[in-house]
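Supplementary Methods S3. Complex input for the adenosine monophosphate-bound model.
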Amino acid sequence: MQNEKLKSHIRDVPDFPKPGIVFKDITTLLQNPKAFRETLQVLYDRYKGKGIEVVVAIEARGFVIGGALAQMLEAGFVPVRKVGKLPYETHKMEYELEYGTDTLEIHTDAVQKGQKVLVVDDLLATGGTLAATCKLVEMLGGEVVEAAVLIELSYLHGRDKLKGYDLFTMAVYESE
Ligand code: AMP
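Predicted complex, serialized as structure tokens:
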């Protein structure tokens, strides 16, 4: 699945969830079994044989990609969620939004020390979400092998927040 081909399966929804935001909607990709499969195959081919033991994904769209990929890689799946959603003991990480802050959580027993972890989400915007997730993995002693997203909005410079981590992005948008 090439950059342009993947983009052809992603729908732009202007002014969602608020005016001025162009939402990159991947439901159009997910409902197409061939396109979704090809996307997963790219990720599988990249990470097979790399010793990935755990795929950590961020709610909610990250779960769809991360869950399927974890099965293909024969790795465990671990959810990172917004505060208050995970039932057991958690570690928390606050991160910056455009206005204010938000908090993500991971179960304290979700990753073991030294485990090789792949972090997955659908989209990299300003980078706060993915960076906070990588830090949560490291709080538990996990090794972030790479962070992978389907879509990078490079004009928001999210990569800058992920310095020190390897980052793989499949479709890059250089402007809105
Ligand atoms: P950020 O922390 O700014 O990198 O935001 C990334 C998170 O917000 C991801 O979990 C995305 O699903 C979501 N997100 C941010 N901007 C968009 C957008 N334009 N379209 C779709 N999802 C977005």
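Strands lie at 11-14, 22-25, 54-58, 76-82, 90-96, 101-107, 116-124, 143-153, 167-173. Residues 21-24, 58, 61, 121-130, 158 surround adenosine monophosphate (CB under 6 Å).
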